[in-house]
């Protein structure tokens, strides 16, 4: 290489820079973060202007002009949010039309479900195998008995057409994870199987489901599940989207779990086999516990997506939280210009709090898993 | 299926539809068009909203992703707030909000809000000054194609000469002259390429101009704002993945900041950005099916909604719809993979 090097190299010395600004404390922070140069100052002022433009109307709508007390008549001409609408409709938004005297059953199921999930997904807590057994086997059965009712146990039967609100949203989320996690793990293992047919079938299922919109899966479940069984066995109208959600979630979960399986060094399996563990035992005692722990953040993220997606069941006529909010909004007793916006803001707050909390938790977990070994 | 009075086969494809579609990019009439035509109308509407949404979401997403890394505290915080807010609220809820709470309660056409440049906003959508084909349209299109082809030719020649000699030969003035002169000459020779009509109130609604229906507007807003939040995160991660040393080394070599971005940071960041970006484009396309909820006539709404309800051929229709989205996913994935291969590191 005898190219003329000077072509690529600056010929002149760069001009000397001005010394750093000597400043300390708040002034230094402001100088560095807000007013470093003309462009930065312009951006700061634009940003502050944007906030100044947005904040006062928002404050007026949400707080100072909002209606906090009273009945439907109070909101007829309200220019702010109609919080009293939310307060009055809260039982409906939470439980749907589930009979009032039986609502404790809902509370018990939802609380138990969440306690079990936290137990299952916290790497620090002990006896997670027990938690898994309770969550994936005992919980669904108990929940079904408790929610739907068992006359033999003195629990009145409550038809699923009465179920609704936040309760159904949480139920769909819970059932989604109860069924999609084991199913997804099975699919991930099948995709790594030595048998080509099984591998191909699993890959086909996963890629097909991931390639189509969730709503088509819901339509499929809605229209086609009844075709596969005799008319008398027709699946319940809430059960169909539940199955659709579980299958859809399983395909995404499978890819997450596959990531965990791939991240696990081969030596783990080989060591387990060398110790004389059967393939099944090495899978259950060595591979899966480690692989699943690695991907807990991925599982949580995938669950957040699934949780947001459960809103789509309102399109196939299930009164989940969003469906109940839409139904409450259409109540002819409540006619006001701000009813719709209030309903949407409340729903948005609910989903935001759930999803944001979960994503923070998963970020924290990720950080903890990256540092320090798992115990 | 027969027991449930569901038709077999695909005979419905050639039956007359008998319903109207508000927004059709190809001629569609309730009395004469078939369900098959309705399928294509829906498909085109899906592709339209997906293409527009992808462009808008990409622009906004890159802007916000870069703003999140800004040294400016206010700008970085605002973008972070945007991302957290829009990606943690379900898309369906956002769509319903835009449609039912913002666009529908707008005043009727007679009390429309007047925007700058003759645009009008009311509960029938947004009406813009609309371009229409004129005498000069075809020559102009040809001239533009020619200019682009010549420009590309020049660019390749310049690249080759740079590789051979090491000297970068600027395209600057020649390129600019080409880009300006050719279309200008065409316009002078054949007359203006487009003529613009302003929206005008006639009776109860506006005519002329280009009107964008509120359904399309709400869907576009929802899809692009939601997807932009995810794209912003991808862009941020991509830029952060370029090691600090790369920038510092480039600066030490004396490259000015713009060239550091253009030749050092962006090419390396793009390698990290492209694969997840493809995923977001596919998600946006799949999410456009939420049109069902607000009544935008996309494939899912027209075909899996109206046509399914009228014909009852649920199995065939749901599978056709799934097939279409699967095909779109596969084609997009393929195209992006090809580009990705071009951008990837060529290790010796």
Could you list some keywords that capture this structure?
heterodimer; A: 375 residues; mainly alpha; MetI-like fold; 67% helix; B: 348 residues; alpha+beta; four-stranded antiparallel beta sheet; two-stranded antiparallel sheet
By CATH, the topology of the largest domain in chain B is MetI-like fold
Strand order of the largest sheet of chain B: 1-2-3-8
Low-confidence parts of chain A, pLDDT < 50 over ≥5 residues? none
Rounded average pLDDT of chain B? 83
Shape of chain B: globular
CATH T-level topology of chain A:
MetI-like fold
Number of domains of chain A: 1
CATH class of chain A: Mainly Alpha
Secondary-structure element string of chain B: HHHEEEEHHEEEEHHHHHH
Q: Radius of gyration of chain B over alpha carbons?
A: 25 Å
Query: What distance lies between the first and last C-alpha atoms of chain A, to the nearest angstrom?
Result: 57 Å
The amount of helix of chain B comes to: 55-70%
Number of strands of chain A: 0
> What is the CATH architecture assignment of chain A?
Orthogonal Bundle
CATH superfamily of the largest domain in chain B: MetI-like
Topology (elements, then pairings):
The complex is a heterodimer of chains A (375) and B (348).
Chain A: H1 25-33, H2 38-64, H3 83-95, H4 103-121, H5 128-148, H6 166-191, H7 196-211, H8 214-228, H9 239-263, H10 266-274, H11 279-294, H12 296-309, H13 321-329, H14 339-370
Helix pairs in contact in A: 3-13, 4-5, 4-6, 6-7, 6-9, 6-12, 7-9, 8-9, 9-11, 9-12, 10-11, 12-14, 13-14
Chain B: H1 35-68, H2 73-87, H3 91-103, E1 113-114, E2 120-122, E3 125-128, E4 130-133, H4 137-165, H5 172-190, E5 194-197, E6 200-202, E7 205-207, E8 210-212, H6 214-241, H7 244-252, H8 257-287, H9 291-294, H10 299-311, H11 314-343
Antiparallel strand pairs in B: 1-2, 2-3, 3-8, 4-5, 6-7
